[in-house]
Specification:
about 170 residues, alpha+beta, 10 strands
Length: about 170
């Protein structure tokens, strides 16, 4: 994929994530929403469709994605507990998983190791779709070296589980 972002004054204002191999592109601009459209077939006259995060409210009902459990466990020793509680877990990794959260196909994504240039375009896409992209304390940003993305509804529960907060949701339903 190709990721392009425009940042000014410490704020990412515009983001584009293009995946020619998937025939799909996601884009967003502050205050204008987030969109998905096709990359193949030339100009179709279609401006793309507006995307929104899902309305799922718990990790137990969520599809949770991760970049790599090997690297996630280095940052969050409790990361496997998230996968055990989730309705479904997959390791799609990188930009695509964040875009799947933005378009409502998954509810959460966590990864350890991305650089600011890996996250800048995704930050505005996820936020304009109604989600959150933060560090593990809930602070938005792209410079942490890791990212936690969600539909917003499951974000606090996800952060508690990743950090191993006592009293977080049980591992068995």
């Amino acid at each position: 994929g190709v990721l392009i972002a425009y940042e000014a004054g410490g704020t990412v204002h515009l983001g584009v994530a293009s995946a020619p191999a998937l025939g799909t592109r996601w884009w967003a601009a502050r205050g204008l929403g987030a969109y998905r459209g096709a990359t193949a077939g030339g100009h179709s006259g279609h401006a793309g469709e507006r995307i929104h995060v899902s309305d799922v409210r718990t990790i137990a009902e969520s599809q949770v994605l991760n970049g790599s459990m090997k690297y996630a466990l280095q940052r969050w020793p409790n990361a496997q507990a998230v996968n055990e509680l989730a309705w479904r877990e997959r390791g799609y990794g990188d930009f695509w998983a964040h875009c799947l959260v933005a378009e409502g196909a998954a509810e959460a994504m966590f990864e350890n190791g991305p650089h600011p240039w890996d996250l800048a375009a995704l930050l505005v896409i996820v936020e304009e779709a109604g989600g959150r992209l933060t560090d593990d304390e809930g602070n938005p940003g792209i410079d942490q070296g890791y990212a936690v993305t969600s539909n917003g509804h499951v974000h606090d529960e996800l952060l508690e589980l990743l950090r191993g907060v006592p009293g977080a949701a049980p591992l068995s339903p």
